[in-house]
Automatic annotation (TrEMBL):
InterPro entries: Haem_Oase-like (IPR016053), Haem_Oase-like_multi-hlx (IPR016084). One of its GO terms (biological process) is heme oxidation. SUPFAM superfamilies: Heme oxygenase-like. This is Biliverdin-producing heme oxygenase. It comes from the Bacteria. GO terms for molecular function: heme oxygenase (decyclizing) activity. It holds the Pfam family Heme_oxygenase.
């Protein structure tokens, strides 16, 4: 029987996760409304096309995963609207092109990508508490509040499905899953760094 996946996944993505956190200084951004708005714009540009790509992967239903209940892009759009952006402005914000997204050619890769997006809700709980002392209005905090009291149950349900998938996975599929998780962190970092790279 394969060893539990989650500890290995955390261990083997730790460096990519740390590099992303060093690039995306969320705790600094929430102190300034303009910075917070720009942060959400960047997140939308990555989350929305990646969520669409994940929903186009078949097989989620076999593991009791309903991605329509786990979308984060609509929360970001809600927050941007609360911060004064019109629907047209939101629609025309830059989106990450498919060539720069992590690979989602298999369900294993899709699970790896989704692990990163789902895991972000855990960090969001910490940020949502910090927002109470920030200039960000209450109506523009939906993304970081995410599932609210259901964050942990939703996370545990996802991890359970991922572990069950891994029980039936080959070694190469497990490697694909972990590789896709690392790609997701790395590609988000590059997306967030793109303006700096053009300077």
């Amino acid at each position: 029987m394969p060893l539990p996946l989650l500890p290995r996944l955390r261990r083997e993505t730790a460096q990519a996760h740390a590099r992303l956190e060093a690039t995306v200084l969320i705790e600094d951004c929430i102190k300034d409304l303009d910075c917070y708005r720009e942060l959400l714009k960047q997140f939308l540009g990555y989350y929305q096309p990646l969520e669409t790509a994940l929903e186009n992967v078949s097989g989620w239903e076999d593991w009791d995963i309903d991605l329509s209940q786990r979308r984060k892009a609509p929360w970001i759009q809600h927050d941007l609207s609360a911060l004064g952006l019109s629907p047209e402005e939101i629609r025309h914000l830059p989106r990450c092109p498919p060539s720069l997204l992590p690979e989602t050619r298999s369900l294993a890769q899709a699970f790896g990508c989704a692990y990163v997006l789902e895991g972000s809700t855990l960090g969001g709980r910490h940020i949502s508490v910090m927002l109470d002392g920030s200039p960000v209005p209450p109506g523009a905090r939906r993304f970081f509040l995410s599932h609210g009291a259901q964050v942990l149950p939703m996370w545990k349900a996802f991890c359970s499905a991922m572990e069950n998938f891994n029980l039936n996975a080959s070694t190469s599929q497990t490697d694909e899953l972990i590789g896709a998780a690392n790609q997701t962190f790395a590609h988000l970092q590059r997306w967030m760094d793109r303006d700096r790279d053009r300077d």
